[in-house]
Amino acid sequence: MKTLGWNDLKVIGKYGKHKAWHPDDRVQEYFSDIRTPSRTWPHSYARAAQTYKFAYWLLDNRPDIAKHFKLNVAGDE
Predict the structure, then answer these.
(1) Of 14, 34, 36, 37, whose CB neighbour count within 10 A is largest?
(2) Average pLDDT value over all residues in the chain
(3) Vertex 19: Cα angle to 37 and 62 (nearest 5)
């Protein structure tokens, strides 16, 4: 299993003030319990989106997005 990189995040969100990344509506629900980006913590959502936990969440909840990024459990390379 791979995780998403910085460039991948542009597909499922956008960068706003202070270079903070914000997810789009398709994946927003995953980030509901994660600290909102701020000047002090501008990458809180972006870092969460780059975890294995998020990759597995995409597989389970948004298989179309996971397929776009070629995420799959069998392809652990």
Answers:
(1) 37
(2) 92
(3) 65
